[in-house]
Structures are given as C-alpha cells and as structure tokens.
Write a structure and sequence with these properties.
206 residues; alpha+beta; Glutaredoxin; 12% strand; globular; Thioredoxin-like_sf; Thioredoxin
Amino acid sequence: MFRFLETYNSEKIIKFVLQTSYNMTFQEYLDYFEQILAAPQDVDPYGDEEYFNYTKLNWSRMNRWLKRFEPNNDIKNLIGSITEPQHWIVITEPWCGDAAHSVPQLYQMVKNNPNIDFEIQLRDTEPFLIEDYLTNGGKSIPKLVIRNDVGHDKVIWGPRPEKLQDMFLESKEKGLLFEETKELMQKWYNEDKGEEIQRELLLALS
C-alpha cells in the first residue's frame, strides 16, 4: 500500500486526477500522493518547493498513523454497529498538515465496515464541494461529511478537533508566528494520538 511509484509524466498525472478527483477511494488518494512526490513539477501547486516539502512531510506522517493508529474499543464498537449504508466524504488536499493526522485515522476507524463508503474529494478540484461546508467563511480542511443512504448530511466535522481549534485561534490572538503555531499543533497531535477525534465522533454519532 505504501510503495513509492518510480516514474510519472504529466499526461499520466493529469489523466489520473481527471478520472479520480471527484470520487477517490483512499487507495487512489495514496496513489495520487505518490504521483505528486514522484513528479511534483507536473501538479500545481507542488512545483513550489514549500508545498512539496509540506506534502513530503505529510506523507511520512500519514504512513506513521496508518501503521500505528489503532481505534479505541468505543469507536470500534460504534462503527461496527453501523448496519445502514453511510457515505463518509473527506474533503482535503495532500499539502494539508491537519489532514496528515486525521484522514488516516478516520480511514482506520471505518475500513472494516462494508456499510461505510469512504471517499476522498480534493478541495481545489471540481465539483468544489468545500463551498457548501465553509468554516467561518473559509475553506478550511480537512472536512468530514457523513451522509445517510439517501444523501442527507448526518454529521459535519472539521477542520480539526475542537480543543486544537481553540488552541489554534488562541495562538492567532496572541500573535504567534505561523511556524510556532505549527509546532504547537504538531505536538498536540502527537500527544493526543487520535483520542479527541474519536471522542467527538462518538458524541456526534451516538
């Protein structure tokens, strides 16, 4: 699953994005990630060194959570009890630092329930679903939308756990530099180990 693809040209990448961007499986999202890492100059905005470095770091963090994150018993039992079809849509982008933590954790929670369709949609690609799920007027990601079998929204979550969002806003009010805030947030994610997102989903789905 975590192989690194050797070579990609721009035509292959563009074709892949056009075919999958509206409705990516999690594996297709990982494949897209790998294609960017193999040929960043062919996919905007990853030709920019800063975006590419973010993405490379996010790839490492995602793989770490995919290997180490184990959902707790409460969320396992809740997810396992879902017998009606559900559609979990995650709006994200590979460059997003928050998504590198929460998206693989979400996938690990639901991957064993065949009643849950887990889908990735890119924020900056049509149909621009994020426009319907803004956060204080902004396109903050990741955003999770859980729909029932007739397409009605049951839960909307994101872009990060509430405790971390409060810390983020407090950091902005204090005038901390962006790099300082990122360091604090990374430390929070490492220490939390996915517990807060599970707690919030338990409350939302119970």
